[in-house]
Amino acid sequence: MGKALIIGAGGVGNVVAHKCCQVPEVFEEICIASRTLSKCEDIKNRIGNTKTKVHTARVDADNTREVVELINSFKPDIVINVALPYQDLTIMDACLETGVHYLDTANYEPPDVPKFEYKWQWAYRERYEQKGITAILGCGFDPGVTGVFSAYAQKHYFDEIHYIDILDCNAGDHGYPFATNFNPEINIREVTAKGRYYENGQWIETEPLEIKRVYDFPQIGPRNMYLLYHEELESLAVNIKGVKRIRFWMTFSDSYLTHLRVLQNVGMTSIEPVEFEGKKIIPLQFLKALLPDPASLGPRTKGKTNIGCIFQGVKDGKPRTYYVYNVCDHQEAYREVGSQAVSYTTGVPAMIGAMMLIKGLWKKPGVYNVEEFDPDPFMDALNKYGLPWHEDFSPVLVD
Ligand SMILES: NC(=O)c1ccc[n+]([C@@H]2O[C@H](COP(=O)([O-])OP(=O)(O)OC[C@H]3O[C@@H](n4cnc5c(N)ncnc54)[C@H](OP(=O)(O)O)[C@@H]3O)[C@@H](O)[C@H]2O)c1
User: Fold this and answer.
1) How far is the CA of 305 from the centre of ligand 1 (A)?
2) Domain with 91 in it: what CATH number?
3) Do 160 and 101 sit in the same domain of this protein?
4) 82 alpha carbon – ligand 1 mean position (Å)
5) Are 260 and 269 in contact (CB under 8 A)?
6) Are residue 249 and residue 160 in the same domain, yes or no?
């Protein structure tokens, strides 16, 4: 039925490739391409025998010409970008030039400014429309499934959604004193940034990790969670009409936060270059080199993740609340595809989004966030391909 070019061979790329091969009737051929060819070949070897034909290639996705050449030689229907957010625009340019659909899981961030916003990618709307191709933005779990959950709640359970709380709990334990579950640079930049949430048409800024709550997560138990800014808040504030407040919460252990505070206090999380023995180095990139590779955490990580959304609003004139969430087990994910749950919960939705596009269910020219498509076939696919969801119509609310 279709061909997908997967760019990025980290934890998430590994999951996307494995999951595509579980649906060979949709993904007849895939090409795993990344800066380091050996990582692509390792994934291909781990997948082993499969009906899907698996290719590998080396590409520097910072260079649009290289991506264009690879697209022209492999001729995919879609490019699944699971490299880093820094490559979003160069890959979008290559898709535009070659007329190939695009999907990613994280919005563009300039390498030298710790700021992520959709404005750079939304600016491609008209050009994608004119070219007749689709870009699906932010199709991991959060962003991604959280947007699909919002569209599903809106479609089936509410006339108006007034409040959304997105709750992301990772209760996994990898046994290291300090490590990040996905790309350390992206992760630390996210956590050390100021918090922000949307209320009554305005963005309210907080100090980093200033607002804390305790929530008793189903299948996990009580955890400390902190208000963060997260990219889906920007698109949901636009796409969920009438919403009054949207907040995003993520859990962190005391030990993780203590390590982070120390690293920050000594300047190790800075992205400002410093002179070291005659060479300019960026402290955060140096720290990344010291920390365990997130892909290596898989075999050691035990426990579960729980990510979901609590909605409050009105249906038929009556107040209603609705909580929808997925629980994913790190070790089960590792047994299935060789990556822990954080990569798994990102890679499965990316595969499903690409499948929606190849099947023609999520295909419309332009640049879209996931909540702008019909959520129903995606929700069915989550149950089928490893991320089943649960519903609660009287959840404990976040105050
Ligand atoms: N939406 C969500 O729920 C969610 C959750 C987690 C992560 N994410 C996103 O998922 C993406 C992948 O995360 P990950 O944990 O898999 O990261 P990762 O383990 O660091 O892997 C990133 C991969 O991209 C490759 N890459 C980097 N720069 C490249 C370039 N210029 N050209 C070609 N390949 C390049 C890397 O190659 P090298 O090995 O050669 O460096 C590596 O294979 C990130 O954008 C992250 O923000 C989204």
Assistant:
1) 20
2) 3.40.50.720
3) no
4) 5
5) yes
6) yes
Residue 143 alpha carbon, nearest atom of ligand 1: 1
Per-residue pLDDT tens listing for the chain (399 residues): 899 999 999 999 999 999 999 999 999 999 999 999 999 999 999 999 999 999 999 999 999 999 999 999 999 999 999 999 999 999 999 999 999 999 999 999 887 776 778 999 999 999 999 999 999 999 999 999 999 999 999 999 999 999 999 999 999 999 998 998 777 777 887 788 899 999 999 999 999 999 999 999 999 999 999 999 999 999 999 999 899 999 999 999 999 999 988 998 999 989 899 999 999 999 999 999 999 887 788 899 999 999 999 999 999 999 999 999 999 999 999 999 999 999 999 999 999 999 999 999 999 999 999 999 999 999 999 999 999 999 999 999 999
Q: How far is the CA of 152 from the centre of ligand 1 (A)?
A: 28
Q: Are residues 306 and 163 in the same domain?
A: yes
Q: Is the CB of 36 under 6 A from ligand 1?
A: yes
Ligand 1 pocket member 298 (CB < 6 A):
no
- Ligand 1 centre to CA of 162 (Å) is 34
Q: Which of 12, 79, 345, 351 gets mutated to test ligand 1 (max ligand atoms within 8 A of its CB)?
A: 12
pTM of the model: 0.94
Q: Quote the CA–CA distance of 295 and 299 in Å, as a whole number.
A: 9
Alpha-carbon distance of 231 to 250, in angstroms, equals: 13
Q: What Cα–Cα distance (Å) separates residue 184 from each residue in 2, 9, 143, 177, 356? A: 33, 16, 18, 14, 30
312 lies in which domain range? 145-337+386-392
